[in-house]
Design brief:
The structure holds 2 protein chains of 2 kinds. By secondary structure, chain A is of the alpha/beta class. Chain A is built from 15 helices and 18 strands. A 5-stranded parallel β-sheet of chain A has the order 2-1-3-4-5, with helices on both faces. Chain A has a 5-stranded mixed β-sheet with strand order 7-9-10-12-11. A 4-stranded antiparallel β-sheet of chain A has the order 16-17-15-18, sandwiched between helices. In chain A, strand 9 and strand 10 form a beta hairpin. The longest helix of chain A has about 55 residues. Chain B is globular and about 30 Å long. Classes of the chains: A alpha/beta, B alpha/beta.
Chain lengths: ~525, ~120
């Protein structure tokens, strides 16, 4: 054995002759302390009571037999290298044991004296190398993430200067601009914007891989969000000679999604479509109502480009995949866009798909879960299969102290309020309505609670206390106001649930959009 | 009507120049600082109507500046918009908590920034 500290080895063997043989072989070499047990139960106790450097494990023990004992041994001591021993000359068993995580395998009666200590030493070394490899990989991933963050950050500064000065000249602030200068500078600007998008994508991918891509879902109006995003892209489409239009149905249900991420995904899909659609073609964005019993809504972007073959379709959402056959003027960028879209869509509970035939254009689409207020409210309105007697609606208002300021409240402030309110309510009794922010100078959050008057007052007090204690919300220019009101459940005690729950959901929705009820019930 | 004054705090000369040109053409007067210490002393002297503040500064980063502004009774009422290359996901909440009125990541859209300046001023 090596000249390091004494190795403590656990020998789990019920056959006395086999055990004696091992003790004898190892006994001849110093540096080895052998502890012998005869049953798995004893081995488990030993592993719990002290640290072992290696384990010699017989697979045919009286209390647990075969590979099952190996499974338990690995679970009980994941960092201890294991050498399994058995009288059976079974290659399959050996291969399986190694697959499961044993470091080595010995067939009893077929090994010579020296093999045993050597096998143990190698098993310990191999285990150590594996663990170091794991540490190194983790460390390298962290370094890579930090490096990418740092690089993205640094690239922004010179890019900002370029952006500023090109736009200054383009806007005529450094003298008159000739048409040709205008054209050239517009090209420079377009490239600066592409660079900015590439930097953003790089950061998004880094965060996605580190599991840190942030997505905050709220009840969102898909029609409005898509319409607004398409509107902002119409000019770009026009520059390419492509007709960009949106077909948005009326009466679309709200979805549970992150508004800014939906914009990002739609913008990405439209920009891709524009890349692959020749001048004179069309890109159509559709938001379709869900099928009757579906709980998802579909948003799709269809182009009249060259289409994608089956092979391309299989790989298209991979990271760094770049499609050929783009219209000659466009570039590939970093090839990260669709990969990021896929991550963002799946984090919102939807799925991204592509339908295409070469020569006939492509349709990229994604689904989003529908926000159903009745489904959200059901668990708190129903008790033992029957409708409760009453429910409460609590409202938290956030506003600027100075009412003349009309700028929207910062998203991070609203997120903090939402978090505090969420943490103040009881999970199975109260529900915070996840509304998307309206961009106004005042915002309101609503909680529906399975509570009567007394319960509602207690909840209001608790929310007020939590909001008052929150560090992030202690700001002189922000005002928070909490109030509540109790409503009777129409059809209380009834078992005809669906109809009444829908009614209640509708009345809650009306309450949320009707100011007057609240002015009269301020508590 | 007097022109309103905006203090630009950024350690990069080109960015200070670019912002200066843009803000002046939009009708604002300007003042400058290059680091955390300068930000406070120039603010005291010039009493700007709004501050555009970078985070990555020497001698006291943007967060330190926000803290110092908040504790100074003469300066605490000046609205601050943070303009930084740093990732908003990680930094905007902290900036808002320390009293910033808004956060833009560089390079920022000119129109959006000017709109915000007009609103918060």
């Amino acid at each position: 054995m090596s000249s390091e500290a004494t190795k403590r080895i656990l020998l789990v063997e019920d056959n006395p002759d086999d055990a004696f043989f091992v003790q004898d072989s190892l006994g001849l070499h110093s540096g080895c302390e052998l502890v012998h047990v005869q049953r798995w139960a004893e081995a488990e106790a030993e592993l719990r009571s002290q640290a072992y450097d290696a384990m010699l494990l017989d697979l045919s023990l009286p209390d647990v037999d075969g590979l099952a004992v190996l499974e338990r041994a690995i679970a009980a001591a994941p960092h201890v290298p294991i050498v399994v021993m058995t009288g059976l000359d079974d290659d399959e068993c050996a291969a399986r044991a190694l697959e499961m995580g044993a470091q080595d395998y010995l067939v009893k009666g077929s090994y010579v004296e020296n093999v045993l200590p050597r096998t143990i030493r190698y098993a310990i070394q191999r285990r150590r190398i594996l663990e170091q490899l794991g540490e190194t990989q983790k460390h390298q991933l962290e370094l890579k993430d930090q490096f990418l963050s740092h690089v993205s950050h640094e690239l922004r500064t010179p890019l900002t200067a370029i952006h500023q000065f090109v736009s200054l000249v383009l806007d005529g602030l450094a003298g008159d601009v000739t048409p040709q200068q205008q054209e050239y500078l517009a090209i420079a600007m377009r490239n600066a914007d592409q660079l900015r998008n590439m930097i953003s994508d790089l950061m998004d991918v880094t965060r996605a891989e580190a599991g840190k891509l942030s997505v905050e879902v709220r009840a969102t109006d898909p029609g409005f969000v898509v319409w607004d995003t398409v509107r902002a892209l119409t000019a770009t489409a026009g520059e390419n000679g492509v007709l960009l239009q949106a077909e948005i149905s009326d009466d679309l249900p709200w979805v549970l999604a992150d508004q800014s991420r939906v914009r990002q995904i739609v913008a990405n899909l439209v920009e891709n479509a524009l890349k692959f659609t020749p001048s004179g073609g069309a890109v159509t964005v559709r938001v379709s109502p869900p099928d009757d019993d579906s709980d998802v809504l579909s948003i799709s972007v269809q182009d009249t480009g060259c289409g994608i073959d089956a092979e391309g379709q299989a790989k298209i959402f991979d990271r760094l995949h770049q499609e050929e056959h783009a219209e000659s003027e466009s570039r590939n960028g970093l090839g990260l866009g669709l990969y990021i879209c896929k991550e963002l869509v799946s984090r919102q509970g939807g799925s991204l798909y592509v339908e295409s035939e070469p020569g006939e254009g492509s349709t990229f689409g994604f689904t989003l879960p529908i926000f159903s207020l009745p489904s959200l409210l059901r668990p708190i309105l129903v008790e033992h299969g029957r409708l409760r007697g009453c429910f409460s609606v609590i409202r938290v208002d956030v506003a600027q102290t100075d009412r003349t300021i009309s700028s929207p409240l910062p998203e991070s402030l609203l997120a903090s309020v939402y978090q505090v309110v969420e943490s103040s309510v009881l999970q199975d009794m109260d529900v915070v309505i996840p509304r998307m922010s309206t961009g106004d100078a005042e915002e309101s959050f609503f909680v529906v609670a399975a509570a009567d008057s007394a319960g509602m007052n207690a909840l209001v007090r608790r929310i007020r206390r939590q909001l008052g204690q929150a560090e992030a919300l202690k700001r002189p220019n922000i005002r928070l106001f909490v109030s509540g009101s109790v409503r009777e459940c129409p059809g209380a005690g009834s078992a005809d649930l669906d109809k009444h729950i829908d009614e209640i959901a509708a009345s809650v929705e009306a309450m949320i959009s009707d100011e007057t009820i609240w002015r009269n019930s301020n508590g | 009507m007097d022109r309103r004054k905006i203090m630009i705090v950024d350690d990069d000369r080109d960015i200070r120049m670019g912002l200066n040109a843009r803000l002046r053409s939009a009708g604002y007067d300007t003042a400058f600082a290059e680091d955390g210490v300068g930000a406070i002393s120039v603010a005291r002297k010039e009493r700007p109507d709004l501050i555009l503040l970078d985070i990555g500064l020497p001698a006291g980063d943007g967060f330190v500046v926000l803290e110092r502004l908040a504790t100074n009774p003469d300066l605490a009422c000046i609205p601050v918009i943070v303009l930084s290359a740093k990732d908003p996901a990680a930094n905007e909440p902290k900036a808002i908590e320390l009293g910033a009125a808004g956060y833009f990541q560089k390079p920022a859209d000119n129109e959006a920034l000017l709109d915000a300046i007009a609103k918060y001023m």
